Amino acid sequence: MSKSADSASATATASKAKQNTTVAVNSNNNEKKSIEIQINPETPMSVAKLLRHNKELKQRKGLFQQRQSDFFRYKRFIRALKSPEYTKKSKLQPDIFPPVILSETPATDPKEIEQEDIRARNIFITLIKTQLIVPAIKLHSNECFEHQLKPNKDYPHLILSNKAILQPDQYFVWNYNPKSWYDTFMGIGVIGLLLALVGYPLWPPFMRRGSYYLSMGSLALLGVFFAMALVRLFLHLISLPFCNKVTGGFWLFPNLFEDCGVLESFKPLYGFGEKILIPTLKR
Predict the structure, then answer these.
(1) 274-280 contacts: CB < 8 A, separation 24 or more?
(2) Are residues 170 and 190 in the same domain?
């Protein structure tokens, strides 16, 4: 499930020219209906590119397999497939973007709405099959410890689900992350920085002097950090004989080495035991 989007695209392209997808749903009279549509092998990747940042998804950031990923609910993706953006694209390229809404006016008949949902579901299934989207389970803070994960106050943890349940409130994670302008800018910046470092002998005297003071300042900050860590550990070891097992030892800056922001690492000033971080990380 952790294949990249490029490999997923290659898998889809290497498949048959047309593949049939059938989804069965229960109608009001308890009879099963199905719609069979032909999916172009280019459809999954094209739909993913079009809807990756669609506002209807209301995507959130989460930690999936130790990295930040965008996740959303199934019902949100169905709404994105019914959005004017996708509808307009499906009219221009129906072979690449299978139509979901066939009428010019919004459907009011329950049967028409049901048919639209089935068509949207078929498209969604193709994205799952090509692993552009994977099913996930959102964990609460108390469930993170069961999976040996540390709660994070900014991003909820997500784990891979073995089964894709197409229910409105089920969560899914994007496994397709195209390069953005920010990534391109960062790449150019890294290359520029490397070239600047290589050209250090050509730097004017004031730049060399500035880099010297900057490096000395960085080393001083690093030294202060290590000294603070040693003092912190020393105080903790001294406090152990005077503290009971319930409260635990004294810690200066208990969140110093925790997975949190720079400012949060120095809050609170002190604490006792190993559980001081848990209440602050609950969402």
Answers:
(1) 274/248, 275/248, 276/251, 278/141, 278/151, 280/153, 280/255
(2) no
Own/partner contacts of 57-61, CB < 8 Å, gap of 24 or more, are 59/174, 60/156, 61/154, 61/155
- Statement to judge: residues 113 and 44 lie in one domain: yes
pLDDT number for residue 274: 66
Query: What's the confidence (pLDDT) of residue 35?
Result: 52
pLDDT of residue 275: 54
Owning domain of residue 194: 186-281
The H-assigned helical ranges of 93-156 are 110-129, 141-144
Residue 28 pLDDT greater than 70, yes or no: no
- 88-125 residues labelled b (16+ CB within 10 A) or e (exposed): ebbeeeeeebbbbbeeeeebeeeeeebbbbbbbbbbbb
In terms of domains, do 213 and 268 share one? yes
End position of a domain, from candidates 155, 178, 201 = 178
173 C-beta neighbours (distance < 10 Å), count? 22
Confidence of residue 51 (pLDDT cuts 50, 70, 90): very high
Residues contacting residue 20 through CB under 8 Å, at least 6 positions apart: 36, 37, 38, 39
**Which is it for the CA torsion 211, 217, 218, 223, positive or negative?**
positive
- Same domain flag for 40 and 143: yes
Does one domain contain both 77 and 157? yes
Count of domains in the chain? 2
Distance CA 73, CA 34 (A): 23
For the stretch 57-102, pLDDT in tens is 999 999 999 899 999 999 999 999 999 999 999 999 999 999 999 8
Residues 83 and 208 in one domain: no
pTM of the model: 0.61
Q: Note whether 90 and 220 are same-domain residues.
A: no
